[in-house]
Predict the 3D structure of the following.
Amino acid sequence: MCGIVGYVGPRAAVDVVMDGLRRLEYRGYDSAGVAIVAQGQVALAKKAGKIANLDKALAEQPLPTDGLGIGHTRWATHGAPNDVNAHPHLSADGRVALVHNGIIENFVQLRSELAADGITMTSETDTEVVAHLLGQAVAAGSGLGDAMRAVCLRLAGAFTLVAVDTDAPDLVVAARRNSPLVVGVGEGENFLASDVAAFLQHTREAIELGQDQVVEIRSDSVLVTTFDGKPAQVRPYHVDWDLSAAEKDGYDWFMRKEIYEQPKAVFDTLLGRRDSRGALILDEIRISEAELRLVDKIIVIACGTSFYAGLVAKYAIEHWTRIPCEVELASEFRYRDPIVGPTTLVVTISQSGETADTLMAIRHAREQRAKVLAICNTNGSTIPRESDAVIYTHAGPEVGVASTKGFLTQLVACYLLGLYLAQVRGSKFGDEITAIMEELEHIPAALELLLDDMQPVLDLAAEFAAEPSVLFLGRHVGYPVALEGALKLKELAYIHAEGFAAGELKHGPIALIENGLPVFVVVPPQGRDMLHDKVVSNIQEIRARGARTVVLAEEDDHEVDAVADVLIRLPKVSTLLQPLVATVPLQIFACELATRKGHDVDQPRNLAKSVTVE
Ligand code: M6R
């Protein structure tokens, strides 16, 4: 997730900004930069890699210690993580410098308009178009605040923008839509940042900027307006967190914070995927439509949680495209002499983009001339670089070792891929694809509601904290959810947990059921097929043998009332999309249970975030 800092006041802006960037490092980034407006000019330094690289550049070529400044740590979305794509970006005449967090959905169209005006881009970023638009507006006579308001009205997507102008040496202007920004209010100085951690050592008084608002800070004033220039209500507050809590936005663990970021992560992953006519556009897919029409087999390869996302993908892809789809653990793939050829599409799923097992599987698949498409969260990492195509999930950096928002956004990317293949191959009508996309676009709001009501799950974790064993059951796409629920509990709470396909119970696992054993069951939505009723029968079978049943079922499903010892209600969604909501209570349960046991939730024992050895 990008980090943003802005400062105006009597201190050396370059020091305040650099210090703020260091305090935002925990958010994850791949390049960093700073711009200072002093003596009527923008002085700029930006470098790929860690802030240490930027420090080195500044030591070799120091920036002025007067003036005001903005800075940025970048988590690449559009364009590789290199010096040129690093922020800040400048307007064509060098007058405006800009940093940006988020995604400008309509940047391709804006770029063409700028090209028609004779402006050429120097970077591959979506951000640069905004720097040029601001540059054009101030050159035409607007003040920077007015320019920002006018430009924001032309932008689609999610963004926090912070800009400075050489002609306004006492002013930093920022705007916010669907991306975070806070104002730090000091005495004779003011700050802007992605979160309060960046300025906490200077001030604890903050203002949270609302949606679609612009803020103009000077050393002695803070002015907030809406995009259309009306005065806006401000929400000042006092920050009483310590620095470590501030980094986690007040949560006790990064994992818990990341669970609560899922509505936004899903929203961001869906951003910009449809054109004005509603057709899916996956512009990162560099495999031609003709080649995609020839695909006769899909093999999804991944590890751990990403593998479970792959299991869900199989149901969706086969249902929507009728292309046979296998799912394979990356560590097994190349050792079984798999049948792979030029018409096989290998889909790899990896949050980190560095998992060695997955990488080796890709190399093997490409040796067999298969096309490889990576679903990945980390721009510029090895797996997308070694693949023919990529769909980036826009979850932002995941710090907790246990994957949460990584998983949900992988599911979204898998659904997008399935629908895109269906569109290209004509296996679904356009209106059917649109209906599913619209349902997906409602998921962030459904997740918000679900997350607002997690107290019963927290209570359950308290009740089950001493249990030695927990089982998870599901059918169809509920089966991978059960596997994921069990994995979360194993890796965080270090207790025995197993996920089973509910229909398999009678073939063996039912022997494990004894009095008081907690069993979570994911119940499919009530529908036309028998799936729902079969799972309800499964619950009856285990309850009759003494299991304590924790039933996850959609909100108006009353057939489960009689078989559930504990009921967790899920928002109503269609069967294939249910993993997006059903997984969340299981994440919260594992996080809370591990917390109750006194474990380090973010760094569980024996585990690494990215497994870079086979
Ligand atoms: O970075 P990747 O998605 O390739 O990682 C795959 C697994 O190592 C990862 O999902 C692991 O299982 C997590 N600890 C799950 O929470």
The chain has three domains: 3-245, 249-450, 453-596. The CA atoms of residues 182 and 209 lie 6 Å apart.
